[in-house]
Amino acid sequence: MTVRDVIIIGSGPSGYTAAIYAARANLNPLVIEGAAAGGQLMTTTEVENYPGFADGILGPDLMEQFKKQAARFNAEFITKDVTKVELEGNIKKVFVGDEQYQAKTVIISTGAKAKMIGLESEQRLLGYGVSTCATCDGFFYSGHQIAVVGGGDSALEEALFLTRFGEHVTVIHRRDTLRASKIMQDRAMANDKISFAFNKEVTEVIGDTKVSSLKLKDTVTGEESNLDVTGLFVAIGHTPNTSLFKGVIDTDEMDYIQTIGKSTQTNIEGVFAAGDVADHVYRQAITAAGTGAMAAIEAERYIEAN
Fold this sequence. Notes:
The chain is 25% helix and 26% strand.
């Protein structure tokens, strides 16, 4: 069986960038992209904060450019999900069903997914008024009425950030107290552009081609009401795609892969992690791409040293 230099598990900005760097270093990477190749940007409409695209670019188009660039340098792609890994020892084994692939190094770039409310209307309008990232999309909501769902620090951070653009921001929380830290609560409550809808949950996102309002239900009384907004930001957390590596790779209390120091090295030699699977702070395409480059460079150095 051929033992490759590097296998990249996952795609998105981190996986594809790792592939570009690894391929240009003549490491002939195999990218097992996953069945849903391209990552979170595949559900994003306009990306305006990725350098080099002055007029913006659609998320899927950006990922297609990344992949084409990696393919140009002879990266190979399999658009299936990895089902099992054996990462200990000098030769790493990666399984796709009954197929086994072997490599000296593995780069994990399986990303994360935003937790959603779980409504059909929310999925249908994702990218058309429903978003999971204020730093990505806030700019599009200048002068709008906006709602943020959530009660933690990230929800209040999103709300405070959105006050730079929106006319007003309503924070919707299903309980009567927030989970957020005291300092974040104080900041949000002192901001006259933010109001709170406590004991409320969103039961429907209303709109044909874009969001026009939300249907809310009171969690105590069951009473229904409408909230006129043109933007809904869901900020109830992210789940890193790490179930495949449970008990194999060290993760933190939120299940994100832990890397050593400022590197992308995991607790297993020759195994690296890049992008949102290891980053719950920045979660941007540009930072994911940056760590993808780091992982490929570190994999190359590891191979040379061994």
